[in-house]
Amino acid sequence: MAISWLDSPTHHAWLDAEALRLLAFARTSRLPQGFGNLDDEGRLPRCALAETMNTARMTHSFALAHIQGVPGCRELVGHGVEALQGPLRDKEHDGWYAQPEGHGDTGKAAYLHAFVALAASSAVVAGISQASALLEAVTQVIEQRFWCEEEGALRESFSRDWLHAEAYRGANSNMHGVEAFLSLADVTGDTQWLLRAQRIVERLILTRAAADGMRVTEHFDAQWQALPDYNRENPVDGFRPYGTTPGHAFEWARLVLHLEAALQRAQLPAPESLLPAARGLFDSACRHAWQADGAPGLVYTLDWHNRPVVRERLHWVHAEACATAAALLRRTGEAQYEHWYRCFWDFIASHFIDCAHGSWHHELDPALLPSARIWGGKPDLYHAYQALLLPRLPLAPSLATALAL
User: How confident is the model at residue 85 (pLDDT cuts 50, 70, 90)?
Assistant: First the structure.
């Protein structure tokens, strides 16, 4: 077999060039209150508004770039930290809004707090002033409000004053909780975060998904009873779609491998079922989602009979598939994962990368033409940028810490 792309200097150079191209596009997303959502041509709409999710993701991504040595990113990380400490934070009740106060829903979501924690931890590694204060603040909120020791998982969301909790539990928010906890463990040195990540994985993957052919159940009630019909009438929801989401199966598989490596690095016992679970999640997603409707690419969602529901191809799904193939290839050395790694990058290069206007098309319709049914514009750097970094890094420690070594 030819040299693995993971070891190819030419492939590494391509990854570097594409990463720098994405960063150049994303720089223009800066707003006074954080970072906004860019349109297809990389412009901020006249009504652009900073959002906590994108601000946190951009702060994390620019922190990774600064750690790598990309000039001009340190100031952007500092701007993100200031925004997360300022207009996006609730000064009265603590926690983080989705948008600055006065602009819509002021509820508190675990999903967003996980990204604030990820941004803060990466900014600490990047050496940004005030990042430690942000990290301390967000970890306190996660521990006091979202983490449920009895359930071994994150509660979903609360009203602004924390008095009313949503009667829902979500796999998506807990998945990003695992990602954040792995980073927190590296930055703080507290292995309790690893054990919390392990408990989430045990509940949602080693128990629930393993009992259902390694398909990830996304939606639950407050007692962790599955809600298979959730959002049946709104299947294109960008965060809580109906059915199964193969992109999350890929993402979970990669995080499971990171957890295994992190536990081993910390000299803690790692369940033997972690690698088989990662394999099963990846294999199930490839088998059911790739060319599910006869055309190339991975569909967004499937029903409970593994039939396509939303056939759009989303860029983040393919970025996660690519990063997970690399992780499995690094973990096992098996040729099947080399095949998929190359397959996914070829598809991304042929269909998602926008050489005319920059960045990647975030969504393609079933005919593989740019679309905006679910996600309009090009607001996201996080998934694509990480996919360009992860293939060259060990499975542990987490991204920012690994880049700093």
Answer: very high
Q: How far apart are CA 332 and CA 395, in angstroms?
A: 12
pLDDT for the residue numbered 2? 83
Domain range 5-404, CATH architecture: Alpha/alpha barrel (1.50)
* Amino acid (one-letter) located at 81: V
Cβ neighbour number for residue 212 with a 10 Å cutoff: 13
Domain ranges of the chain: 5-404
Is 361 assigned a catalytic role? Answer: no
Q: Confirm if 118 and 52 have CB atoms less than 8 A apart.
A: no
Nearest-angstrom CA–CA distance, 195 and 179: 13
**Torsion angle, alpha carbons of 374, 380, 382, 383, to 10:** 40
Q: How many CA atoms lie within 13 A of 346 on its CB side?
A: 8
pLDDT at 1 over 70: no
Q: Which residues of 288-307 are buried (b: 16+ CB within 10 A; e: fewer)?
A: bbbebeeeebbbbbbeeebe
pLDDT tens-digit series, residues 240-285: 999 999 999 999 999 999 999 999 999 999 999 999 999 999 999 9
Question: Which residue carries 């001009």 as its tokens?
Answer: 72
Is residue 248 part of the annotated active site? The answer reads: yes
| pLDDT tens-place string over residues 89-98 | 999 999 999 9
pLDDT range class, residue 100, cuts 50, 70, 90: confident
Average pLDDT over residues 60-73: 98
Say which of 288, 318, 362, 383 is annotated catalytic: 383
- pTM exceeding the 0.90 threshold for the entire prediction: yes
Query: 60, 113, 176, 248: which one is catalytic?
Result: 248
